[in-house]
Amino acid sequence: MTTTTRPVRRVGELLRDWRQSRRMSQLDLSIETGISARHLSFVETGRSRPSPELILRLAEQLDVPLADRNTILLAGGYAPAYPRHELDDPELAPVRAAVRRILDGHGPFPAVLIDRHWQLVEANPAVALFTDGAAPHLLAPPVNVLRLSLHPDGMAPRIGNLPEWRTHLLARLRQTAVGTGDAVLHDLHEELRGYPGGNCHAPATGDPVSRVAVGLRYRHDGRELSFLSTTTVFGTPLDVTVAGLAVESFFPADAATLRALGVRGGDAVPPS
């Protein structure tokens, strides 16, 4: 039996790949970080060993995800700079409490906590609005919320503007996959774009909401509900796990949706 191992990549190669992915020249990066282009070239070719401080300075300027900054440090022979705690570790208790307040306070409207691969971590009870009718295999942990949204056995048949919503989600996923260099997200994008649902390359103009943002029109109990979504992330995270967390919250986009969800007096949205 033969086993193969992936070659260990050098710190300079990793930094060069991130620089090129950000479409920056050595001169551009050297100007932004205050080091000479000659020194940067020596680092990338392995002729000079960068200090951990230099690695972090370059990684910060290149907006390298925290997990990948640790990988670059390890390639340079240094210890990781950013911890990776589990969400139920005591160190992340304030994070859990903050997320719980957001999810609970958002009711009766749906909100979910997802990780960096769009897997469901936690949700408020109102999310049952979206999961109702989905196939059991899509709801078995770990639940991927993008797969749940676009799979023909998931939410897709009940999305009234599926081409627009699908195009929006795929573009967002592709942008994140390219920006992070995450192979899991690249594979997920390839999977999801193979699902049926159509594409929409022009903004919709059928209602006031669609003129300002891509909303979600969702059929439930014989009614079409209209939502706008927001994404909340933790500012300046220093933990790998926390850096990958995001809360996706859905807000009613019209008074009819407010009434359908049992809220009276919809002053915050225009009448429908």
TrEMBL record:
Gene3D superfamilies (UniProt xref): 3.30.450.180, lambda repressor-like DNA-binding domains (1.10.260.40)
Pfam families noted in UniProt: HTH_3, MLTR_LBD
InterPro entries, sorted: Cro/C1-type_HTH (IPR001387), Lambda_DNA-bd_dom_sf (IPR010982), MLTR_LBD (IPR041413)
Boundaries of every HTH cro/C1-type domain copy: 15-69
One term of GO molecular function: DNA binding
Alphabetical list of PANTHER family matching this protein: BLL4672 PROTEIN-RELATED (PTHR35010), BLL5781 PROTEIN (PTHR35010:SF4)
Stated name of the protein: Transcriptional regulator, XRE family
Lineage: Bacteria, Bacillati, Actinomycetota, Actinomycetes, Micromonosporales
